[in-house]
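Researcher: Please translate sequence to structure tokens.
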Amino acid sequence: MGRAIFTSSVVPMVNRLAVALLDAPVLGRIVGRGLVKIRYVGRRSGKKVELPVGYWRSGNDIVIGVAAPDAKTWWRNFLGDGGPIEVLGLDGRDRIAHAVASRDGQGRVTVTVRFYT
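Model: Translation complete:
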């Protein structure tokens, strides 16, 4: 059941709700303490993708934990040398960064986002 929830048709609706909450004037500041929108261009599709993700801070970087990584593909855009990413609305502004995905020995995936400025 764990992976099935991430591949169900409910996920896009939940993502849209999370984005709406982030965009709300008052709630956005509260929700945005642990949730942020990212935007990137898919390596294979060439399409812009925008989605909400949970994060935590690690020094000047942020780290995105990928729940059920085998059921998701977005993080694979940042394997190897990684790639460019936009972090939208972090601390009230949009920032361009470089993201690198890694998987540990237990299969957990994190995406480390390092800001240019």
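Researcher: Any highlights?
Model: The longest strand covers residues 48-58.
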